[in-house]
Amino acid sequence: MENRMNNKTIELQLPIFFSCLVALVFCTLLTARLPEPDHINEGNSISFEEAYMVEEENSTVLRPALFFSRTQQPRQDSILELYRQDENRERVINFFREICPIMGIAEVILANADEFNISPSLAFALSWEESRFNPRAVNTNNRNGSIDRGLFQLNSYTFPRLDLPAFFDPQTNAHYGMSHLRYCLDSSDSETAALAMYNAGTNRVRNIGTPITTLNYTGRILENRQRIEYRFLEQETRYQADIAALTMAESESEPERPLLSLLKPLGIR
Predict the structure, then answer these.
(1) How many domains does the chain have?
(2) d(CA 79, CA 23)
(3) Is there a domain that residue 180 lies in?
(4) What's the pTM?
């Protein structure tokens, strides 16, 4: 009887143990990749406080060499990993639907971020900064006379072959937006530099410098990106805790299985 009770206790504890272990490992991996909230500008990318600022023609610019002087380690994105798993994809989509409630937009941004291997949190933070997720957004305030349109505010000079309907099509706009961001990421050593290139232009950042307005732009995107990741971490932590609690409840409600009685050898009564 004592052995039976011990076996039953082990059977109940094993599912709970492994569920908690999975939740702990996931949360540890995700939090390990997130910077501290009060140090969003620190890390591999150059911080705004450390930037060497100079005055040039009454505008503050950042010497471009500083953007490319530090090598950023490849970032493994936990949200993107979950999105690529069939059993977890819908949960990720539902999370971003809450951030971007406009029908179909969250799915479009996620699909193109996945295609170009871009962090979903970065993609959504960029789209929010550019258009507030409005696929019909238009900016006509550029000094050179160009026009920015759509989800990712594609520039008419940068994409001269796109016709007007293409700029306002969410799928097309997200495709070219993520493709261009991928180019910027591959052409720089940090996400800060890549976002600056996306906003001010690759040649401007490399050869002239980055306006302070663009530095503020990149700071807002990275801050919102961090908020998205912490919000996702909170949701995922609750989800894993619910799974562990459900596993525990199911284990406790299982009926006790009867032990098989020993079979007597043939011929013995």
Answers:
(1) 1
(2) 15
(3) yes
(4) 0.70
